[in-house]
Amino acid sequence: MPQVGEFVRLVDPLTENIVVRLTNPNWESILPAPVNRFISARERFLVFSSNRFGVLAPWEVDLRTGRSRPLGESRALAPRSLCLDPRERALYLLDGKAVKEIALSNLKTRTIAEEVDAFALEGRTSQLLVLKGQNLIRVSDRKVIAGGVSGPEISLRPSGEGCFFERPLSPGNRELWYVPFATSSESKPVILAKGNIWNPIWNPDGRSLLFLREVDGNGVPISEIHEVFPETAVERTVDRTSQFAAFAPNGNGSVFVGASRSKAQPAIDLLLRFPPRDLTLCEHRSTHPASVSPVFSPDSRRIYFQSDREGKSALYAVNVERLVEPTL
Question: What is the CB neighbour count within 10 angstroms for residue 53?
Answer without folding.
Answer: 11
